[in-house]
Amino acid sequence: MTPTIKKPKAQKDQREAARSMEGNIEILNLNMKPGNTLKVKGKISADTVGFSINLGCSSRDLALHFNPRFNESVIVCNSKCSDFWQTEHRDHHLPFFRGCTVKFFIEMLSDKFRVKLPDGHEVCFPNRHGYHNINYISIVGGLKIISFKMT
Fold first, then answer.
1. What sign for the dihedral angle of Cα 73, 145, 138, 47?
2. Quick check: 127 and 112 in contact, CB under 8 A?
3. How confident is the prediction along the chain (151 residues), in pLDDT tens digits per residue?
4. CA angle centred on 15, ends 3 and 66, rounded to 5°
5. What's the angle, vertex CA 42, arms to CA 40 and CA 47, rounded to 5?
6. What pLDDT sits at residue 22?
7. 110: closest CA among 139, 134, 74?
8. Are 45 and 123 contacting, i.e. CB atoms less than 8 angstroms apart?
9. Which of 74, 146, 142 is nearest to 104 (CA)?
10. Out of 27, 61, 90, 95, which could bridge 57 as a Cys pair, Cβ 3.0 to 4.6 Å?
11. If one looks up domain 25-150 in CATH, what number appears?
């Protein structure tokens, strides 16, 4: 796996550009299949509004968009088909906060994704596309990656 850093678009404030770079990772050859689990550990930025972990075939076709939003105290999950967002699922169980270190376990099953949160709570989201192989992952926003492993 060769991670590539996704650069932010031109922005007026250089500090904002540096802050938006934090945690932005894109991997194009993940090869995740049903039965595999991603273990993602990171530190949440103290001033972020949120971050997202995206799994799919490309940035235009996402099977799972996992998006904790601190300004709304919610975890939003969604999928994207040909660059169009589908119906989102909202889970109001947000057991972590800005500035903390977190670990997520994202398990791919044949019919759904199961995300285990740091406190053991699970968020399940259907595999709407029916993908049997996920090659694309991006982690965007205020999550600085400490470790990343697929088993």
1. positive
2. yes
3. 444 334 444 333 433 433 434 558 899 999 999 999 999 999 999 999 999 999 999 999 999 999 999 999 999 999 999 999 999 999 999 999 999 999 999 999 999 999 999 999 999 999 999 999 999 999 999 999 999 999 9
4. 45
5. 140
6. 54
7. 134
8. no
9. 146
10. 61
11. 2.60.120.200
Which residues, listed in sequence order, are joined to residue 75 by a DSSP beta bridge? 68, 91
Q: Exposure of 43 by Cβ count < 10 A (0-12 exposed, 13-18 middle, 19+ buried)?
A: middle
Residue 42 · residue 145 · CB < 8 Å: yes
Domain ranges of the chain: 25-150
Decide: 27 and 145 in contact? Cβ < 8 Å.
no
Sheet with 101-108, side-by-side order of all strands: 122-126, 112-116, 101-108, 37-44, 143-150
pLDDT for residue 1? 44
Q: What does the block give as tokens for 149?
A: 């492993």
pTM reported for the whole predicted model = 0.83
